[in-house]
Amino acid sequence: MGTYHELEMITVLALLEYTILGIMVGRARQTYGVEAPATTGNPDFERYFRVHENTLEALIVFIPAVWIFALEVNYHFAVALGALFLIARIIYASGYLSAANKRSAGALATAAINAILLLGTMIG
Amino acid sequence: MGTYHELEMITVLALLEYTILGIMVGRARQTYGVEAPATTGNPDFERYFRVHENTLEALIVFIPAVWIFALEVNYHFAVALGALFLIARIIYASGYLSAANKRSAGALATAAINAILLLGTMIG
Amino acid sequence: MGTYHELEMITVLALLEYTILGIMVGRARQTYGVEAPATTGNPDFERYFRVHENTLEALIVFIPAVWIFALEVNYHFAVALGALFLIARIIYASGYLSAANKRSAGALATAAINAILLLGTMIG
Question: Per CB distance under 8 Å, which residues of B are interface residues toward C?
Fold first, then answer.
């Protein structure tokens, strides 16, 4: 697998981003006094929770799709889209955590990247 | 990977189904007036939300399991089970979105497919 | 793929654990009278629900990370960490299902395993 180092690194970095967002949910539990097992009841906590969950919802598509795209369409384009995914998630998280109505730009960027990966593989 | 085209296509189609279900959640937010970050409060919206989430819960099992089954047990049987998974998710979504108590058939079909993939690999 | 049998088995066992936790959510729905699509309203049910969801949140990291670690760092160490992941999830589930404040040990063990997989790959 020595030839796939860049895409392995993109995958690991995407999972690290997601892990950091999960740690932020744990801290938000304490900040806003939302005790487990509750995940609702405080809109500020809920934004942290949804940022993490939405990133999970994006990763289940991104990880298989970026690898199939890399193998079947174009490896270097897959790595470039993967780098954009990492950036799109930072835009999404920082937007959503500042205000719920500022989540659209990062969400659309993520959706566009995943759509290119899926549709690009179907056409290719 | 040229020999795995059918299973790559099944994987991409399953992720496309899931993406469409996610777009339907976004539309249901507007239809039923459920503003982010809330995911509860309107049972009609919650059915759209749960269809999407339950499909995520199924995909985390299906994707690794269908590939390991394909490599270790039987590739063509894996592709056939994959095609059934795509259909089972349509049955599940259309049932659940018509009424919460009509979700069982599609849910059981999905569970059966994933169980065959997991137990088939353990026996094989 | 004949050389990866142990790690395939770890992956399948992790998905089986997760499937069993999902079946327990279905039973808890009936025990505590929480009708779909609701996932909140009864704290006892919510603990079952969160055990399942949190395991999904862990698996999206664990599965890609343990495979990349196996390929790039050390296969046998990956299998050993995978076996610990299976145990950590049992500790987490049995702790959390007995009381919400007993979820920390299993959660920390899971987080530590996933962190070793991700950071070990980045360093290696």
Answer: 40, 43, 46-47, 49-50, 56-57, 60-61, 64-65, 68, 71-72, 96, 100-101, 103, 111, 114-115, 118, 121-122
